[in-house]
Amino acid sequence: MSTKGLFTLLFLAVLTGSTYAQENEKRFGFELNSGVSVATQKPGGTSLNTGFGFEGILHYRFMPHLGAYAGWGWNRFGADESFAGNEVDFEETGYVFGFQFRHPFGNSPVHYFVRAGGLYNHIEIENSDGEIINDTGHGLGWQLAGGIDLPIGTNWSLTPGVKFNVLNRDAEVEGVRTELNFQYVSVRIGLVKRF
Fold this sequence. Notes:
By secondary structure, the protein is mainly beta.
């Protein structure tokens, strides 16, 4: 079968798929996810090394395929050289909230999901001794994410996926204000427990 034919079958399966057992599924879920991050911008002209982070998210499904989520996350990038000095860390922490659309692939227990939400985060810049040089204060940003929900047991799932975060904040180091256009892509894998 050609690639085009495979994509056509997949598309039709998604369009004609039933709600599977979603009506009987638990409405709440708690997810822990973690993975690596790659910056897509140079905040303050700084080249960031590959980062790492995690999130803890509470889900609530209020319609067969639509739900809301909220949680807390942390992501860290190191930088060999920056406007704030050498060997510094940029740590983004704060809150995430938004909506999730989750739908099965046909009659399969496997689902795909997409998320769109906001961030209320801040960025701390730490020197090589672990001392905070600057804290930008919290501000609003946004997040897009998507992935696959793979059942691994009763009310448990693995959720491999990708997310994109955007947060713009200002940092002031030694009296010099620098705009931080903080954008990155993360490849994550999560574990969800529904209850």
